[in-house]
């Protein structure tokens, strides 16, 4: 009868062994013991030396014996508690929306020797923070490595989460084909039974809608949005408020302003009931833009002013830069040029102070429009030139095309036809 060979699974624990060894040595030196003294009668000096150099991994019996002689817990040798806390701090900064601090914290942790799973988790957090700051190229690098490591470790849920932020980064880089492929693959896994987070399917659908909208496929985008609308009722009030907020934004992007307003109202009511201050203020700004687009300037001003007051109270200057640009747009629509100019300069100042390049670009473009309305063509040309320089330094190609097109149009109107032609060619090539 043939014998069946059992496959032996080999796990690389070298990083874990090195970590334990380093903590063991640090604790021994702190206790002022030699390797022979630590070994006692049970182990040898050579064994302790091998442990400290990470050549072998100790048994739990050895850890318990050595930790007792050192006056520490076995857990303290197995896990660096300071490192755990630092990781927790990084995750808390990410959850609190302190993206730049989170990026720095994850980066510092990645400088050390990290076992593959922990490295992938750090990279995933870093990728999310980078993507939220619109730093697509860096976010894609971190997200791609995280997804690859998770896939290699056969952790499909973690790989899906990392892939989501990789797709967000690709979208920021205007690589809509790659973003779509990644998200469709993740969605197929979810439809096939992969259980991630309670609201992850909706997030993927929303992201696919955004990708299709960016690619000009508005009917496909709306189809995804309708699926989201049908699933949103399964969420609790707080999560439903957030998804209705995203849904309102997506409707506005696809040009369905009526749906944007009605969905936004529903989200606002839920946010107010849950007292989610930052999200509520963001939604008020989003709704203000929707009302501005349909010509209801009174309601737009009311909502934008409320958002400004809330972000001022929260000392959130990064978000305030966006709201001031919204208020400048409303003032411009009312032909209150002086007020619009004052608001846009304030928005520009805050955008630069908080390194919010997206808000800086939108405020520069708004300033150019205000200057045109004031008859200051030279000032408008200078603003467009500044905006183009900023857009060229970013991976957002559609933003650059928009800047170049507006700038070229103004140059043509003012008689600078040759320069306008050069910019038009650059816009087409970008």
Give an overview in words.
The chain has 23 helices and no strands. It is an all-alpha fold. Among the domains are: 14-79, lambda repressor-like DNA-binding domains (434 Repressor (Amino-terminal Domain)); 212-315, Serine Threonine Protein Phosphatase 5, Tetratricopeptide repeat.
List the keywords:
single chain; 430 residues; mainly alpha; 434 Repressor (Amino-terminal Domain); Serine Threonine Protein Phosphatase 5, Tetratricopeptide repeat; disordered N terminus
Secondary structure layout:
Blueprint: H1 14-30, H2 35-39, H3 45-52, H4 60-70, H5 74-78, H6 81-95, H7 99-110, H8 116-132, H9 136-152, H10 156-172, H11 176-191, H12 200-214, H13 218-232, H14 237-253, H15 257-274, H16 277-293, H17 297-313, H18 317-333, H19 337-353, H20 357-373, H21 377-392, H22 397-413, H23 417-429
Helix pairs in contact: 6-7, 6-8, 7-8, 8-9, 8-10, 9-10, 10-11, 10-12, 11-12, 12-13, 12-14, 13-14, 14-15, 14-16, 15-16, 16-17, 16-18, 17-18, 18-19, 18-20, 19-20, 20-21, 21-22, 22-23
The main β sheet shows up as:
none
* CATH superfamily label of the domain at 212-315: Tetratricopeptide repeat domain
Query: By helix and strand content, what is the structural category?
Result: mainly alpha
Give the DSSP E fraction (strand runs of 2 or more residues): under 5%
Low-confidence stretches are 1-11, 81-85
Average pLDDT rating: 81
């Amino acid at each position: 009868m043939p014998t069946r060979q059992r496959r032996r699974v080999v796990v690389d624990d070298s990083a874990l062994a090195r970590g334990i060894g380093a903590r063991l040595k640090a604790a021994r030196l702190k206790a002022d013991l030699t390797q022979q003294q630590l070994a006692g009668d049970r182990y040898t000096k050579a064994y302790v030396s091998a442990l400290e150099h990470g050549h072998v991994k100790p048994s739990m019996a050895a850890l318990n014996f050595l930790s007792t002689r050192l006056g520490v817990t076995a857990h303290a040798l197995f896990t660096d508690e300071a490192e755990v806390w630092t990781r927790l701090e990084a995750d808390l900064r990410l959850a609190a929306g302190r993206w730049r601090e989170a990026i720095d914290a994850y980066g510092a942790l990645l400088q050390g020797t990290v076992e593959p799973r922990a490295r992938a988790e750090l990279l995933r957090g870093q990728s999310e923070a980078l993507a939220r700051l619109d730093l697509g190229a860096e976010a894609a690098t971190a997200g791609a490595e995280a997804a690859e490591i998770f896939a290699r470790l056969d952790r499909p849920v973690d790989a899906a989460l990392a892939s989501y932020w990789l797709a967000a980064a690709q979208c920021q880089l205007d690589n809509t084909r790659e973003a779509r492929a990644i998200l469709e693959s993740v969605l197929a896994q979810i439809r096939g039974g992969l259980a991630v987070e309670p609201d992850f399917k909706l997030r993927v659908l929303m992201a696919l809608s955004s990708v299709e909208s960016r690619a000009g496929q508005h009917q496909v985008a709306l189809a995804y949005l309708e699926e989201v609308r049908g699933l949103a009722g399964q969420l609790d009030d707080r999560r439903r408020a957030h998804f209705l907020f995203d849904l309102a934004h997506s409707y506005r992007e696809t040009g369905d302003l009526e749906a944007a307003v009605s969905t936004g109202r529903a989200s606002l009511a839920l946010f107010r009931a849950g007292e989610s201050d930052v999200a509520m203020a963001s939604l008020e700004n989003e709704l203000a833009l929707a009302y501005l687009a349909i010509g209801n300037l009174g309601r737009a001003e009311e909502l934008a002013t409320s958002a400004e007051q809330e972000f001022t109270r929260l000392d959130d200057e990064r978000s305030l830069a966006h709201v001031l640009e919204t208020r400048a747009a409303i003032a411009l629509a009312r032909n209150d040029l002086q007020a619009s100019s004052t608001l846009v300069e304030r928005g520009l100042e805050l955008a630069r102070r908080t390194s919010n390049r997206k808000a800086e670009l939108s405020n520069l473009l708004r300033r150019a429009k205000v200057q045109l309305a004031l008859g200051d063509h030279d000032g408008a040309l200078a603003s467009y030139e500044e905006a183009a320089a900023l857009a060229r330094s970013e991976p957002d190609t559609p933003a650059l095309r928009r800047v170049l097109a507006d700038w070229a149009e103004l140059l043509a109107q003012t008689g600078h036809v040759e320069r306008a032609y050069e910019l038009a060619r650059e816009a087409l090539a970008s």
